[in-house]
Amino acid sequence: MSAETTDKSAKVVLITGAAMRLGAATARHLHAHGWRVLVHCRQSRERADELAAELNLNRADSCHVLQADLASDDDIVWLAQESRHVWGRVDALVNNASSFYPTPVGSITATDWDDLFASNARAPLFLAQALAPELRARQGAIINMIDIHADRPLKNHTVYCMAKAGHAMLTQSLAKELAPDVRVNGVAPGAILWPSNGNIPAEQQQGVIAGIPLQRMGTPDDIARTIRFLLDDAPYITGQIIAVDGGRSL
Are the beta carbons of 55 and 62 closer than 8 angstroms? Predict the structure, then answer.
């Protein structure tokens, strides 16, 4: 059976770090609701290509992969330009890409600082800036993936938390700067997925869950649905950061 034909007027979203985990879940969810998806990746090209093949099998010419290093100024400029060229429009940007690892005080290096700030604060700013004219023309939106630890620090993660706090302020600042044409909001996940390195002991996992009022982990779809709400069903919301955390930040 051949794939359905994509509506050429369908909106286009660029999702950074979309090959796996929350980014991939968001790509699938938005695609299922009619969006065309630009899947950005840095190193996970094989996974990104698999995701694109899956989505294009469902609807032809509806997903495209763009590989770029968000720590490179030239790559950010290229990514913004190429995003516009693929289908001639970009209606939304989801800044999802994020480095995450501990940096205990006493071991922090300049490389840690540069890497964690590059994906979690610097790239979202410069990518939003590069795409701002296109998003203004489309009356578009930006969604920034924040973290509940932007407000309440996570032990041994000082640099990451600082970068996410900057990302949160970027969300609010851009909401003012790009209004009234572009809405800018954030989503702050709580305990959704354990780190991919699998280094969280079972006892610690149970301790985290015990501190969540809803007494359970969230799912990637909880994040994806919130992003779609902000993109599709929230025309009068801007400058807000929604915690999707089962009440953990309380």
Answer: yes
Torsion from C-alpha of 23, 24, 28, 29, nearest 10 degrees: -30
H-assigned helices in the chain? 21-32, 45-58, 73-87, 110-117, 123-137, 158-177, 202-210, 220-232
Q: What is the Cα–Cα distance from 153 to 150, expressed in whole angstroms? A: 7
Three-state SS at 127: helix
Sketch the domain layout of the chain as residue ranges.
4-243
Query: Quick check: 194 pLDDT over 90?
Result: no
Whether the per-residue pLDDT at 44 is higher than 90: the answer is yes
Determine the topology of domain 4-243 in CATH. Answer: Rossmann fold (3.40.50)
Annotated catalytic residue: which of 38, 160, 161, 242? 160
Among this protein's residues, is 160 annotated catalytic? yes
